[in-house]
Amino acid sequence: MKSELLLRATLIAASAFPCTAAPILYNLVNLGNAGGSSASANAVNSSGQTAGTRSNASGDLRAYSSGADITPAGATNAMAAAINNSGQIAGTSYLDGTAYSTVWTGGNAQLFAADSFAMGINDAGQVTGMRPTGDNGHAYLMTAGVMTDLGVLAGGGWSSGYALNSSGTVVGYGDTASGAFRGFTWSEGKGMQALGTLGGRNSYALAINASGRVTGSAQTAAGYLHAFVFEDGAMSDLGTLGGTSSYGYGINASGAMVGYSSTSDHGSHAFLYRDGAMADLNTLVLSASGWVLSAAYGINDSGQIVGSGLLNGVEHAFRLDPVVAGLESFTPPAVALIANPEPGSIILMVSGVAFLGLVRAFRKRRN
Fold first, then answer.
1. Is residue 355 over pLDDT 90?
2. Domain of 91?
3. Number of domains the chain contains
4. Backbone angles phi, psi at 192, to 5 degrees
């Protein structure tokens, strides 16, 4: 009876969309917060387990997985950035003000390398992030506890890994000789290769799927950052939800991407991009009373999506579960791109992408 009512609700909701195929619809799961001002689910694995970061009433950041606080004993702050299909988690813990790359296995935390940060983990347990090298930080690939320096882009001084796939291909970004930031891919035998942009100066690669498709954000000729997909050597603009900027954060095996975009009324809404179209996730949730889904950071191969949103004005983490498995593509109304120029000095200001500030703090500390 419950499944019949759910199916009826799906069909009724689908009839409201002027499209040729049923839209994907989701149930919203509130992952809560820890009494502070921020909460975010950053990743979700094939079992629906989540990993994320939330602040407590004292303003400290706490790492958590599927609702449980996993901050290591003695750590003042911790962040969980990624989770693999075995439930291993990669993130960063702070002890006495020093950052340590951290890997949680079976609930037990292991810390690696002072002044380092872990951002991605694959199903083989390989980890990527940034570690100190001289007065700078370099992207690394850690296998069985051994960190390999991935170097920097030509003429650059620092780099950081952000995600990696099951083949060990790493994506991230770094600086160049001109001072611009460029996304990169790194793979065994090919080394670090810079991605292009969407006509502007900077780009940032933040996620990669099993087939090597990459998403992130890149600057347009007008100076805005737009979410992109990079495949077969070409970068394509995913557009926006009517605002000026968008940011890609997650991608699954089928190439569906999530992130967030500014809107025409200067808000921030989570998006799902697939089948050549971007949709506002707020329009695909069956019941979200009091919610504004602000950003999506991860998507698994079953279509579950995680991120952060405002519930009655307070930030909470969320997970979206597809209502009916097997629903095919959606066709949301086309959204025109905004072409108003933005000052060239605008740089990436994305929640969850903190490496720029971390690098500056690290350099200051080293000096």
1. no
2. 52-283+323-366
3. 1
4. -90, 125
